[in-house]
């Protein structure tokens, strides 16, 4: 049976923890009484809140006593319940308002690694409004006003819990796209006569592919198994891709389509540029296609031994790429010579590094710590005075790394802010030069109606 996320209900005695526990598990399991301290051992139960499914843990009322006392031993049980918890619900009594015990335990919970949701119970009356404002003093964010006894505020509790339950499920999900340690699938693409087959022959140290001064010798995508420093590589040589307007013959059209399929099935794509010709518009179109397919990209200047004024050429191509591929920063730019073999080891090493980044999974905890910092540094705009609320982020898949941001009014979020988040992601998790996917999603509240 799959392990469920754990949500621990915490608070001082007699704030309604057991009532909330019974509400979440859907039956009267925990004993409820006005007398404080009824619950002494922690109790677990299968809880459901709309489509959220988790293990709810009812705990003893927290009291600030030494470990040798009964109250102290009960507190140790509560601390143990926090191990591996996805979230903790700190319950306060909205009718009574904050007490020194509430403040003490809120300060303690802020020192733990567990996400804390502040729940103001018994908030069914107007008298609770003052306590709700006062609850902000605890530094735990917006309080969720509920009445566990009457079932009020469950929609707001759902919205507060959903990010943490979803985060747990994402972390537990076995990612089918995860790197299985198989051979690096490395495709070499470029315009005709850029030196693709010559480079592969030099890598293999044999005349494996037909080469010559004539453009368009290679027609099919050729896969070759190879090993580099004990690591398996599957090299894919492809036909040169010309401008679409120049592709007239049926055979060349088929070759170009075969190259596009090779890009689809590659992990890392090396776009080879002829250093004697520099960067052309067609090169940028090929690079854009690789990125649109979500493949890791390396740009390599070939025939480097024949290039003149190498420093100026390299810097010029680098500047042109920064302008022409503005949607992604940090694409590796390398130099190589198929004639001398210079730069080949660096190329293969960088290809493995790019595959590692392309396959990277960032934990939800790391992601949301970054997310909070990014929002604090540059809050989202408020178009027409309407606040855009970004709640949390999770990684949906890898290869390429794909992330989903949940929030409200996301249709009003400008593209410039999405680009800010993507660039911040790249810098925070060393994802430079890797295509990223960022999806905005508003999670519907099932209790909204």
Describe the structure.
Associates with the 50S ribosomal subunit. InterPro entries: G_ENGA, GTP-bd, GTPase_Der, KH_dom-like, Small_GTP-bd. By secondary structure, the chain is an alpha/beta fold. The protein has 3 domains: 6-172, Rossmann fold; 184-358, Rossmann fold (3-Layer(aba) Sandwich), CATH 3.40.50; 364-441, GMP Synthetase, Chain A, domain 3, CATH 3.30.300.20. It has 12 helices and 15 strands. The chain has helices at residues 17-25, 70-81, 100-110, 129-134, 154-172, 196-204, 250-265, 281-292, 310-324, 344-358, 364-377, 415-428, and strands at residues 6-10, 43-49, 52-58, 87-93, 116-121, 144-145, 184-190, 222-228, 231-237, 268-274, 296-302, 333-335, 389-397, 402-408, 437-441. The chain has a 6-stranded mixed sheet with strand order 2-3-1-4-5-6, with helices on both faces. Strands 8-9-7-10-11-12 form a 6-stranded mixed sheet, sandwiched between helices. Strands 13-14-15 form a 3-stranded mixed sheet. β2 and β3 (52-58) form a beta hairpin. The protein is elongated.
Following the backbone from N to C, one meets helices and strands in this order, namely EHEEHEHEHEHEHEEHEHEHEHHEEHE
Instruction: Detail the poorly predicted runs.
Output: 30-40, 68-72, 174-180, 209-220, 245-252
**Percent of residues in beta strands?**
15-25%
Radius of gyration: 29 Å
CATH level-1 class of the largest domain: Alpha Beta
Query: What composes the largest sheet?
Result: 6 strands, mixed
How many domain regions? 3
The shape, in one word, is elongated
Helix content: 25-40%
End-to-end C-alpha gap: 34 Å
Mean model confidence by pLDDT: 82
Binding site for GTP 2: 190-197, 237-241, 302-305
Binding site for GTP 1: 11-18, 58-62, 121-124
Family: Belongs to the TRAFAC class TrmE-Era-EngA-EngB-Septin-like GTPase superfamily. EngA (Der) GTPase family.
Keywords: GTP-binding, Hydrolase, Nucleotide-binding, Repeat, Ribosome biogenesis
């Amino acid at each position: 049976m799959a392990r469920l996320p754990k949500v621990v209900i915490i608070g001082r005695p007699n704030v309604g923890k057991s009532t909330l526990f019974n509400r979440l598990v859907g039956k009267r399991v925990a004993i409820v009484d006005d007398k404080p301290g009824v619950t002494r051992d922690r109790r677990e139960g299968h809880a459901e809140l709309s489509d959220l499914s988790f293990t709810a843990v009812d705990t003893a009322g927290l009291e600030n006593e030494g470990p040798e006392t009964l109250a102290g031993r009960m507190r140790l049980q509560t601390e143990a319940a926090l191990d591996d918890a996805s979230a903790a619900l700190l319950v306060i009594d909205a009718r009574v308002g904050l007490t020194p015990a509430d403040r003490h335990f809120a300060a303690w919970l802020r020192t733990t690694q567990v996400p804390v949701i502040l729940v103001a119970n018994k908030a069914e009356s107007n008298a609770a409004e003052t306590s709700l404002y006062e609850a902000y003093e605890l530094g735990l964010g917006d309080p969720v006003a509920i009445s566990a006894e009457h079932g009020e505020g469950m929609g707001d509790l759902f919205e507060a819990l959903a990010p943490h339950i979803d985060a747990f499920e994402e972390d537990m999900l076995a990612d089918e796209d995860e790197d299985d340690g198989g051979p690096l699938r490395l495709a070499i693409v470029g315009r005709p006569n850029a030196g693709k087959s010559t480079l592969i022959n030099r890598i293999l140290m044999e005349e494996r592919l037909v080469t010559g001064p004539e453009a368009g010798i290679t027609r099919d995508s050729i896969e070759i198994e190879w090993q580099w420093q004990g690591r398996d590589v599957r090299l894919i040589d492809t036909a040169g891709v010309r401008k679409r307007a120049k592709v007239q013959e049926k055979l060349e059209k088929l070759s170009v389509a075969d190259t596009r399929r090779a890009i689809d099935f590659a992990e890392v794509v090396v776009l080879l540029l002829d250093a004697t010709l520099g960067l052309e518009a067609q090169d940028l179109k090929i690079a854009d296609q690789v990125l649109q397919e979500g493949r890791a990209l390396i740009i390599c200047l070939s025939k480097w031994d024949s290039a003149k004024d190498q420093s100026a050429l390299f810097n010029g191509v680098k500047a042109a790429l920064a302008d022409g591929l503005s949607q992604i920063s940090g694409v590796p730019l390398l130099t190589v010579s198929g004639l001398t073999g210079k730069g080949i080891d660096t190329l293969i090493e960088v290809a493995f590094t790019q595959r590692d980044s392309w396959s990277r999974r960032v934990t939800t905890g790391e992601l949301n710590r970054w997310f909070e910092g990014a929002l604090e540094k540059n809050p989202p705009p408020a178009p027409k005075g309407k606040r855009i609320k970004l709640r949390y982020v999770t990684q949906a898949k890898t290869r390429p790394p794909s992330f989903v941001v949940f929030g409200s009014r996301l249709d009003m979020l400008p593209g410039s802010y999405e680009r800010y988040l993507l660039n911040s992601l790249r810098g925070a998790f060393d994802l430079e030069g890797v295509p990223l996917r960022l999806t905005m999603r508003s999670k519907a509240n099932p209790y909204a109606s």
